[in-house]
Amino acid sequence: MNLILLGAPGAGKGTQAEKICEKLSIPAISTGNIIREALANGTEMGLKAKEYINAGKLVPDEVVIGIIKERLAEDDCKNGFILDGFPRTIPQAQALDEMGIVIDRVIDIEVADETVVKRMSGRRVCSKCGASYHLEFKKPINDGVCDSCGAELIQRKDDHPDTVLDRLKVYHEQTEPLKDYYEKTGKLKVVEGQEEVKETTALVFEALEN
Ligand code: ADP
Ligand code: ZN
After folding, report:
1. Closest residue (by CA) to atom 3 of ligand 1?
2. What pLDDT digit, counting tens, does each position of 165-183 carry?
3. By the 8 A CB rule, do 85 and 79 touch?
4. Ligand 1, atom 18: nearest CA belongs to which residue?
5. Which of 38, 69, 78, 80 has the greatest count of CB atoms below 10 A from its CB?
6. Measured from the CB, is residue 52 less than 6 Å from ligand 1?
7. Closest alpha carbon to 82 in 176, 16, 32
8. 156 catalytic, yes or no?
9. Could you tell me if 175 and 10 are in contact, meaning their C-beta atoms sit under 8 angstroms apart?
10. In terms of Cα–Cα distance, which of 173, 17, 20, 193 is closest to 119?
11. Does 88 qualify as catalytic in the annotation?
């Protein structure tokens, strides 16, 4: 199954991508995580992306399209994949189509802007493996430390409140039109993001089935 998760930043795409990954045994691919990893490793691509990502802007289409092309060519994508954070613009969606990739389902997780702002300010991520936590809703077992790898938890620069508002603006302008794009192909399922992760997961699993 080839899946796309759509939704505003902080809608919980990453969390749901992991749940689907466990259920269907297909890889969850997050362009955000790939870019942050490149940034941490100081690669050329990471350097190119740095100013955009920290300002809450989108990284240029040709850069992310290149990343996705390489990633989808890997062996583990043969039986399907979950895209989390790609496509984020119409040209990115067109690039997928041009690559001859058939998307089976697009799940859009809807969350109000106010909720996004609240969630992002409490979000903390692992500085090493990228796992995501929340000071209130998803606390790590030990304060400030990643459950799965033990590294330090940090706040992403782009999760600071001012930047979050910029990211929401970008979302509404550039990413939201993708709902129409996939509605037209009949692949879109809309799910209302719930307060409890597991409730959203139940809705997402339902959307996968019928
Ligand atoms: P979130 O879903 O919480 O917004 P991500 O980790 O998916 O966070 O993305 C963080 C940042 O990475 C984005 O704000 C953007 O700068 C960059 N990025 C990720 N995916 C894309 C994409 N498909 N196109 C352009 N930029 C992207
Ligand atoms: Zn970790």
Report:
1. 9
2. 999 999 999 999 999 999 9
3. no
4. 32
5. 38
6. yes
7. 16
8. yes
9. no
10. 193
11. yes
